[in-house]
């Protein structure tokens, strides 16, 4: 009896949290010149862009739950692909950060680099990530200087990540595009 009551409360909390998180997050209006006043046209556009879901598709899906992991985020994938030669110290998708371990290509003894990538948004745009490159130069094992570099490597990494993310986004959008058909209207819009 107690477990049934606890399960009911957990289900209620879960449903309330889903409704609250799906309220949009963007308060304020949008540009009426860019959005059609016709609700069917808005539904079609949103579903084609992947901004909505169809309850019928969700209920008819008998293959299990469809989870979205970090691999669906283009910036995350592009970042990991760009720095795949470096060992990772921390990769926290929910925290939005990737930190590599100190890396040296053994050409310069006592010198190594460390890269930190912070994700500021999930959108693929120029200000979406913050890349920092740190250099460590050691004269002996106990005498090391660490400094943040503003070198061209930082800009090159950022540019490379954004280019790969844009390609991944383009591929993902092409794969997920599904034309909307109104089940009530067989003539189309």
CATH topology category name of the domain at 74-173: Alpha-D-Glucose-1,6-Bisphosphate, Chain A, domain 4
Helix/sheet category: alpha+beta
Mean pLDDT: 78
State the name of the first-level CATH class of the domain at 74-173. Alpha Beta
> Residue ranges: pLDDT <50 for 5 or more in a row?
62-69
- End-to-end Cα distance, whole Å, is 52 Å
Order of helices and strands: HHHHEEEEEH
How much β-strand is present in the residues? 15-25%
Largest sheet: 5 strands, antiparallel
Structure summary, number of beta strands: 5
Shape: extended
Task: Give a summary of the structure in a few sentences.
The chain is 37% helix and 20% strand. The protein is an alpha+beta fold.
Q: Any overview of this molecule?
A:
A 5-stranded antiparallel β-sheet has the order 1-2-3-4-5, covered by helices on one side. Helix 4 (74-82) packs across helix 5. It starts with a helix and ends in a 13-residue tail after the last helix. It is built from 5 helices and 5 strands. It has a domain at 74-173: Alpha-D-Glucose-1,6-Bisphosphate, Chain A, domain 4, CATH 3.30.530. Helix content is 37%, strand content 20%.
């Amino acid at each position: 009896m107690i477990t049934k009551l606890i399960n009911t409360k957990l289900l209620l909390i879960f449903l309330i949290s889903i409704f609250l998180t799906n309220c949009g997050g963007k308060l304020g209006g949008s540009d009426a010149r860019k959005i059609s006043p016709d609700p069917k046209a808005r539904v079609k556009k949103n579903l084609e862009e992947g901004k909505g879901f169809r309850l019928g598709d969700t209920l008819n899906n008998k293959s299990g739950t469809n989870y979205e992991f970090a691999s669906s985020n283009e910036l995350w994938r592009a970042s990991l692909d760009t720095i795949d030669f470096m060992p990772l110290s921390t990769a926290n998708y929910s925290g939005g950060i990737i930190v590599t371990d100190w890396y040296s290509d053994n050409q310069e003894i006592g010198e190594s680099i460390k890269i930190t990538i912070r994700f500021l948004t999930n959108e693929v745009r120029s200000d979406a990530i913050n890349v920092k490159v740190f250099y460590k130069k050691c004269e002996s094992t106990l005498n090391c200087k660490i400094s943040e570099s503003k070198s061209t490597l930082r800009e090159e990494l950022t540019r490379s990540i954004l280019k790969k993310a844009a390609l991944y986004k383009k591929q993902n959008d092409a794969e997920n595009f599904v034309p909307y058909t109104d089940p009530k209207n067989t003539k189309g819009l």
